[in-house]
Design goal:
Helix content is 41%, strand content 19%. The chain contains ten helices and twelve strands. It has helices spanning 2-25, 41-74, 91-120, 237-248, 257-268, 312-324, 326-329, 334-338, 340-343, 351-361, and strands at 132-139, 142-149, 152-160, 162-166, 171-177, 182-186, 190-195, 201-205, 211-216, 229-235, 295-296, 300-301. α5 crosses α10 and α6 (312-324) packs across α10 (351-361). The radius of gyration is 27 Å and the shape is elongated. The structure holds dinuclear copper ion (CUA). Residues 138, 141, 182, 217, 219-221, 225, 228 line the site of dinuclear copper ion.
């Protein structure tokens, strides 16, 4: 019996140590979604607030546990002990343990309140001129980004699942949702501000270096919440302006017969009901330049690791996978659930339909 107990205790201890080790791995800064590697002022400020609260809590935890263990040992029951002295209340101690935590909360509140105002108010743009403003809209389950057209500020350019930002400039995000509550978060840049329907939340972010960053919805919003991701491409001002001009122009018309067949298919299968290939914002992601995006549906990379050039073979493979069985990639998505092509036999896509659609979508550069 004793041996069995000892063995199960050992197994339990190993399991606990293993679980702690796995949890500690979450603290590595060399992870795409680590908040311990801030690469912008908002994320750095948020990490500072975390550190203040964490270390205050850590000191209190160690002090309380040490006192508790000391009391257990020092005042443990000895043979022959009678009842302990019975006491009722101790005003001095009660006042002390009310005032001390209140003071600790005040100390933690100072950087927190300062950080709330910091994240809400963008600093002046070091590049001069007003900061870039982007409308970020959450939908089940993708992110839509709207930029003012550089050639006509009264018009919008609509992008899905990919956010571009110029480096070292504050960018202001106006957050909104078209269905349930989502939350906007780019772990290395900052965030976690809720996107609430008909409620204007905003924040600014700035990236200190060029590169690719990971964005993620941070509010549970349905089955594919975990798949509601986007990529942030931070680039030089020149590259950003060039990208925006490309997005502002319509995709080149195709003459390829297979792509033209796909274009017809796109209409006849009613894809066009939900997906705009122009400036529009619909139930599904805008596809005006889908073939220029480095990711498909926010999940499937269209470029080699570290590259910012779309690899056509990867894009083709991803489009085919997605159109063949979207539910396998983003379970519960509206297209699988409601689109005619996946729900009505007369609209169902066979392999040649998928190939034609892929050929058409690949022309939307
Ligand atoms: Cu959107 Cu979680």
């Amino acid at each position: 019996m004793f041996i069995v107990n000892l063995r199960s205790r050992r197994i339990f201890s190993f399991a606990v140590i293993g679980a702690i080790f796995v949890l500690m791995l979450g603290c590595t800064p060399s992870h795409n979604q680590s908040t311990f590697d801030p690469l912008g002022p908002v994320a750095a400020n948020q990490l500072f607030i975390f550190n203040v609260i964490f270390w205050v809590a850590a000191v209190i935890f160690v002090a309380v546990e040490a006192a508790l263990i000391y009391m257990f040992v020092k005042f443990r029951r000895q043979p022959g002990d009678g009842d302990p002295i019975q006491v009722h209340g101790n005003p001095k101690m009660e006042i002390a343990w009310t005032i001390i935590p209140a003071l600790i909360l005040v100390i933690a509140a100072v950087p927190t309140i300062d950080g709330i105002f910091f994240a809400a108010n963008p600093p002046p743009n070091p590049a001069g001129g007003p900061a870039l403003e982007v409308d970020a809209i959450g939908r089940q389950w993708f992110f839509e980004f709207q930029y003012a057209d550089p050639n006509d500020a009264s018009k919008k350019i609509v992008i899905a699942n990919e956010l571009h930002m110029p480096v070292a400039e504050p960018v202001v995000f106006r957050l909104d949702s078209r269905d349930v509550i989502h939350s906007f978060w780019v772990p290395k840049l900052g965030g976690k501000v809720d996107m609430i329907p008909n409620n204007d939340n905003s924040l600014w972010l700035q990236a200190d270096e060029v590169g690719e960053f990971y964005g993620q919805c941070a509010e549970f919003c349905g089955v594919s919440h975990a798949n509601m991701r986007f990529k942030v491409i931070v680039e030089s001002r020149t590259d950003f302006d060039a990208w925006l001009q490309e997005q502002a122009a319509p995709a080149a018309e195709t003459v390829d017969p297979l792509a033209l067949a796909g274009k017809d298919q796109f209409r006849s299968a009613n894809c066009i009901f939900c997906h705009s290939t122009g400036r529009g914002s619909g139930i599904g992601p805008n596809l005006s330049h889908v073939a220029s995006r480095l990711n498909l549906v926010g999940l499937l990379p269209n470029a080699e690791e570290g590259s910012f050039v779309v690899n056509d073979a990867m894009l083709q493979e991803n489009l085919k996978r997605w159109l063949t069985d979207p539910d396998e990639i983003k379970p519960g998505n509206i297209m699988s659930r409601e689109a005619d092509a996946y729900n009505k036999p007369e609209f169902a896509l066979d392999e040649s339909d998928v190939d034609a659609l892929v050929a058409y979508l690949m022309t939307l550069k």
